[in-house]
């Protein structure tokens, strides 16, 4: 994951376990990460937010009402509030209002229980993890298995945290150094949907970086800039000036026709590779709710559709890896 694509034969694309094996266990938990590694994931992904005392913890969002049992804790009821994050009003409990010690008293929950009831049966079994704990888990599993388990941390909402006087970039850089990941060849790739934080991190750490983009919208730190403009030929060249990889939404890699079927690759992978960028699209999920109509099976949103066809089509475009909530299915579709 550490170096840009060269003219040499590309290595086998990597399977990145999105928040761990989050299709099977509550996301960002020890169980989810360990299961992902057991299923053959090459890389595990922790989304990172800050605590009140400046520790990086693995949560998809800084609002934790939907992924922990905090709503059932009377002692924390008074800290429920409303915040504006990236232009959206969000009500709940936020990591930046709690110390790490307080967050460690909480138990994790499945974020999508209506779609993933089997995962929800593991509610309450895990604590929130720090980035240091996730890195330690990856290191120990690498030693135990005799293969490298990489990390793909994402800095979440840096502009929001910066506005609150909590810059995440120096904390991220310090954490990378502490974990021995401050090098261009380290098994790590730091992600962000914003642009400025990646540029700042480039001055603080040698760890490689990935610019995340979406099919719609634009980076929160650059009002008026659209992701669509960032993935043009010129835009990709600009990204290559501060990042080693591009993380597009998978729908930006494969087109979907009016009938809801896969319609072949877009030029994005070829263009990004020409700019010297690796391409690691996100996020492939197996449930009908997340698949295009032609790949759905049955009418239940939580039932699994024909995700193998999507995974194989993505690998066939020449991507350097992909994110999935179901690492085992991605590994199987990739083959050996």
Describe this structure in words.
By secondary structure, the chain is an alpha/beta fold. It has a single domain, classed as TIM Barrel (Alpha-Beta Barrel), CATH 3.20.20.190. Helix content is 28%, strand content 15%. The chain has twelve helices and 15 strands. The chain has a four-stranded parallel β-sheet with strand order 7-2-1-15, with helices on one face. Helix 11 packs across helix 12. The protein is globular.
Question: How would you concisely characterize the structure shown here?
Answer:
This protein has 336 residues and is an alpha/beta fold. Helix content is 28%, strand content 15%. The chain has one domain (14-334): Phosphatidylinositol (PI) phosphodiesterase (TIM Barrel).
Class inferred from helices and paired strands: alpha/beta
Major β-sheet annotation: 4 strands, parallel
CATH architectural type: Alpha-Beta Barrel
Residue windows where pLDDT falls under 50 for at least 5 positions: 1-8
Overall residue-averaged pLDDT value: 96
| Counted beta strands | 15
- Percent helix: 25-40%
- The neighbouring-strand order within the major sheet is 7-2-1-15
How much of the sequence lies in strands comes to: 15-25%
Indicate the overall shape.
Answer: globular
N- and C-termini, Cα separation: 18 Å
């Amino acid at each position: 994951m550490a170096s840009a694509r060269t003219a040499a034969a590309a290595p086998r694309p990597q399977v990145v376990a999105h928040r761990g094996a989050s299709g099977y266990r509550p996301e960002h938990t020890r169980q989810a990460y360990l299961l992902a590694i057991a299923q053959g994931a090459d890389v595990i992904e922790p989304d990172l937010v800050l605590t009140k005392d400046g520790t990086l913890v693995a949560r998809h969002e800084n609002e934790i009402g939907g992924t922990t049992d905090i709503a059932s804790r009377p002692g924390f009821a008074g800290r429920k509030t409303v915040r504006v994050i990236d232009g959206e009003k969000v009500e709940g409990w936020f990591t930046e209002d709690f110390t790490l010690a307080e967050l460690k008293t909480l138990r994790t929950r499945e974020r999508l229980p209506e779609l993933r009831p089997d995962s929800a049966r593991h509610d309450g079994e895990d604590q929130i993890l720090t980035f240091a704990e996730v890195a330690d888990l990856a290191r120990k599993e690498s030693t135990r298995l005799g293969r490298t388990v990489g990390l793909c941390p994402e800095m979440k909402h840096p502009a929001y945290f910066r506005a609150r006087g909590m810059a995440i970039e120096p904390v991220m850089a310090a954490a990378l150094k502490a974990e021995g990941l401050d090098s261009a060849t380290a098994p790590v790739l730091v992600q962000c949907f914003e642009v400025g934080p990646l540029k700042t991190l480039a001055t603080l750490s040698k760890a490689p970086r990935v610019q995340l983009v979406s099919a719609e919208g634009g980076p929160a730190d650059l009002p008026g800039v659209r992701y669509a403009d960032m993935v043009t030929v010129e835009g990709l060249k600009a990204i290559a000036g501060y990042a080693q990889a591009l993380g597009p939404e998978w729908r930006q890699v494969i087109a979907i026709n009016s009938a809801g079927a896969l319609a072949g690759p877009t030029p994005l992978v070829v263009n990004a590779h020409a700019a010297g960028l690796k391409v690691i699209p996100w996020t492939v999920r197996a449930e009908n709710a997340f698949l295009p109509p032609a790949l759905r099976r049955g009418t239940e949103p939580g039932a699994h559709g024909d995700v193998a066809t999507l995974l194989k089509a993505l690998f066939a475009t020449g991507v350097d890896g992909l994110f999935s909530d179901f690492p085992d299915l991605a590994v199987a579709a990739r083959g050996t």
